Amino acid sequence: MAKLSSINKNERRKKLVVKYAAKYAALKATAGDTSLDETERLIARLKMAEIPRNANPTRVRNRCNTTGRPRGYYRKFGLCRIELRDKGNKGLIPGLTKSSW
Questions:
Q1: Is 34 exposed, middle or buried (0-12, 13-18, 19+ CB in 10 A)?
Q2: How do the domains of the chain map onto residue ranges?
Q3: Is the pTM of this model over 0.85?
Q4: How far apart are CA 94 and CA 68, in angstroms?
Q5: 59 neighbors 23 (Cβ within 8 angstroms)
Q6: pLDDT tens for residues 83-100?
Q7: How far, CA to CA in Å, does 20 sit from each of 14, 56, 62?
Q8: Does residue 101 carry a pLDDT above 90?
């Protein structure tokens, strides 16, 4: 089980990303548009720097839904490898069977 503070910190980051998503996308599009003047693009980059750091989508960490473990995360299931195996063996994940050859 991950530290509760780490899980809560990640949840706060997710909320900030959602809050600033539209503004961040608009500024990013303006900063990357080569048809605009250099000063307009520079102003857009400076405004992007004013947005909180944790509002950047790359700072959100994928974590297991049950344990909060950050490593070995399977995006398709939203679980870490340990929980995936445990729930898969118990038959709690539809369509997932233990491989045997």
A1: exposed
A2: 4-90
A3: no
A4: 22
A5: no
A6: 999 999 999 999 888 887
A7: 10, 8, 19
A8: no
Q: Using CA atoms, how far apart are residues 21 and 91, in angstroms rounded to an integer?
A: 38
Contact 28, 90 (CB under 8 A): no
Looking at 3.10.450.50, 1.20.120.1770, 3.40.50.300, 1.10.287.1480, the CATH number of the domain 4-90 comes to: 1.10.287.1480
Measured on CA atoms in the order 42, 44, 47, 52, is the torsion positive or negative?
Answer: negative
Contact 80, 73 (CB under 8 A): yes
Residue the block writes with tokens 């959100």? 60
| Predicted confidence (pLDDT) per residue in 40-80, tens digit | 999 999 999 999 999 999 999 999 999 999 999 999 999 99
State the Cα–Cα distance between residues 79 and 70, nearest whole angstrom: 10
Estimate the share of the chain in helix, then strand, then coil, as percent rounded to the nearest 5: 55, 5, 40
Helix (H) or strand (E) holding 64: none
